[in-house]
Give the backbone structure.
Amino acid sequence: MTDLQICSFNVRGLNAPNKRTQICHYLHKLRVHVVLLQETHFRKQHVPRLSHMLFNQWFHSPSMSSASKGVSIAIHKSMPFICQDTLGDEDGRYLFIKEKIGSQRFTFGNIYAPNSAQADWLVETFAKFGSYAEGVKFLGGDFNVTLNPNLDSSSGMSAVPKLSLLKIKSALSSQGLLDSWRMMHAGEKDYTFY
C-alpha cells in the first residue's frame, strides 16, 4: 500500500465503448489503482455496464437531469478493497466510497464542481465529505477553480475572487485535506489546461 496510485481525469463524456477501453488501457499503462473520472455524461437511466478486465469495481453518481455531469470511481483488480458504503448526489456532482483492506479503512471522494459559485458549493461538499469519511481520506476531481492562480494558470489570474479562494482553502484545511500535488511540487508551474 505504499505505492497507491490515484489518478483523476475529466473525460468529457464516456458513453462511447471505444473511449472507455482506450482510457482503461491508458490507465493500466500508468499503473493506476484508483481512478476518479468526472464529466462521464452518464444519465441515471443509461449507465453502461462497465466490466473492464483491469478495473473490476466501478461506482457511479450519474445525473438525474442532465447528461453533462456525472462522476465515477474505478478500482483496479489488483487492489483487494472491499466496498463498505457509497454516497452520491442526484445531480452527478460527487461520489464518496468507503473501502476497506483488512482493518484499514479508506474513503475516496470524487467531485465535479459547477462552473460558477464554486466556493459555496465546494465548502458544503468538503463538509459532507468530512462528515462521511473514515480512515485514510483521498479527495480529488475537477474543482473548476485554480487554488493557486500564480502557479496553476498561465495568466496568473483567477475569475474567482480572492476571498472565495481563501474560503475554499480554509474549508480544505478544516477537513484536514491537502493539495498533495502542490506539496510535492511547491513552486513548479505545470497544468493541463490554460
Observations:
- The CA atoms of residues 61 and 174 lie 25 Å apart.
- The beta strands are 6-10, 34-38, 55-61, 71-76, 82-88, 94-101, 104-112, 136-142.
